[in-house]
Amino acid sequence: MVMEKLGDSLQGALKKLIGAGRIDERTVNEVVKDIQRALLQADVNVKLVMGMSQRIKERAMKEDPPAGMNPREHVIRIVYQELMEIIGKGAEIQLKPQIIMMVGLQGSGKTTSTAKLARYFQRKGLKAGVVAADTFRPGAYHQLKTLCEKLNVAFYGEENNPDAVEITRNGLKALEKYDVKIVDTAGRHALESELIDEMERINAVAKPNHKFMVLDAGIGQQASQQAHAFNDSVGITGVIITKLDGTAKGGGALSAVSETKAPIAFIGVGETPEDFEKFEADRFISRLLGMGDLKSLMEKAEETLSEEDVNVEALMQGRFTLKDMYKQLEAMNKMGPLKQIMSMLPMGLGGMGGVKLSDEMFQATSDKMKNYKIIMDSMTEDEMADPKLIGGSRIKRISRGSGCSPEEVRELLKYHKTMQTALKGFRGGKFNIQKMMKKKLGM
Ligand SMILES: Nc1nc2c(ncn2[C@@H]2O[C@H](COP(=O)(O)OP(=O)(O)OP(=O)(O)O)[C@@H](O)[C@H]2O)c(=O)[nH]1
Ligand SMILES: [Mg+2]
Predict the structure, then answer these.
(1) What CATH number is given to the structural domain containing 58?
(2) Which of the 8 DSSP states describes residue 357?
(3) How far is the CA of 108 from the centre of ligand 1 (A)?
(4) From the CA of 270, how far away is ligand 1's center (Å)?
(5) Cβ partners under 8 Å of residue 291, min gap 6
(6) Which ligand ends up closest to the CA of 188?
(7) Which of 31, 133, 152, 181 is most buried by its number of CB atoms within 10 A?
(8) 92 in a structural domain
């Protein structure tokens, strides 16, 4: 998971709160101290952290919990709200025809993000094309071309033309029929006049609706300086923070950017085209705090899967047969890294509710899932639709057919039952802490 360390520490702090006998000043101070430490380690600015801690303390002691909310939930809600203040709301991205220009320093991730962004819009049903207007870095043309070919994204470039402005003009014309046109530009080591000059000229020709500054999360709090500088020169409408997967300083970059006027639009969380997310502060924080993120998952599911792959509706209604489970396991494979998916799912839904999975645990779960599929392949249609039919003798038959032990078959049935119960609970039939918290916290 992105910013795993920060998430771990924040969750540790909240666990203390949940485990405390009663919520008094001492408990609050202790929890706030833990949160402080976590944020400072993630490189969030000291002043911001101190201001936030003070507010949490004051609000936790002075404000009365809203009706129906216990003191614990009340404090968690305050922490959530104050984190939202620090991170800020994300940028609004409209799904309509538009021109986007990417700017940023060398190696920040512009070219990679250009391709990822094109894919994002394509998945939303818009036709996307990109223009390779980086004539500074050798190989830039081929890098982008290859990425686009892989993703089936339209590409325009002129390998031997040194004039980035001309390429932009030609490219936008050539891609006229495309809904979303993204212009990848060159970077420089530092914000030097040559770079600014080129950005300004491309800007004048492209007249982009959006100018996204691409920023490497590794620079931490310096993000704010860069965002200001780019904003003053060419004006930026949003920020893409990349490489959040590879740094402990993500908190610095995220909070520093949100202090500038440019909102965070997307985050890059890995090298593959899938590792890219629209930035939604509320979801991001829910995930950090380990509250699962069903909404993100559902969206991801809808984007990646066709309807016959998984019946989300039935799932949410608690109609969950073995067949549905089988489909779900297949769907998980399609959706990519199981680990990522599981950190988004609330507990019980096959997810860990933000509980961290060790690599061994993850491997074990992943192997188990494969086993489950093999076992289910030895079941009849009737059994798949109604697992209650499966008694002792059928278990033996399935065990023989699949080459797994009867214990494994029983375990699968138990797993299915747990999931089914959890889903019913999730739907609201039963007491469910996850749902209750989400509702009360207004998430
Ligand atoms: N781990 C990780 N790596 C990333 C991410 N985004 C980009 N990268 C890697 O960062 C390196 C630089 O990315 P580019 O997209 O080439 O950066 P650029 O801004 O276009 O660089 P220039 O064109 O030289 O200015 C590549 O190796 C990418 O694979 C991300 O979100 N996570
Ligand atoms: Mg590049």
Answers:
(1) 1.20.120.140
(2) P
(3) 6
(4) 9
(5) 346, 353, 354, 434, 437, 438, 443
(6) 1
(7) 133
(8) no
The DSSP line for 16-77 is HHHH-SS--HHHHHHHHHHHHHHHHHTT--HHHHHHHHHHHHHHHHHSPPPTT--HHHHHHH
Cβ < 6 Å from ligand 1: which residues? 104, 106-112, 134, 137, 140, 187, 214, 242-243, 245-246, 268-271, 275
Facing residues of 277 across strands?
Answer: 267
pLDDT digits (tens, 9 = 90+) for 215-266: 999 999 999 998 998 888 889 999 999 999 988 889 999 999 988 888 999 9
Residue 80 sits in the same domain as residue 110: no
- Do 23 and 17 meet the contact criterion of CB atoms below 8 Å apart? yes
Is the per-residue pLDDT at 18 higher than 70?
A: yes
Q: Specify the ligand 1 atom closest to the Cα of 188.
A: 25
Task: Please state the atom number of ligand 1 nearest to the C-alpha of residue 184.
Answer: 20
Decide: 126 and 95 in contact? Cβ < 8 Å: yes
Q: Which one of the ligands is nearest to 113 CA?
A: 1
Ion ligand 2 neighbours (CB, 5 A) are: 110-111
Query: Which of 48, 63, 87 represents a domain boundary (last residue)?
Result: 87
Which residue, 245, 330, 253, 268, is CA-closest to 111?
A: 268
Domain region containing 299 = 292-440
Q: Does residue 23 contact residue 75 with C-beta atoms inside 8 Å?
A: yes
With contact defined as beta carbons under 8 Å apart, do 310 and 327 qualify?
Answer: yes
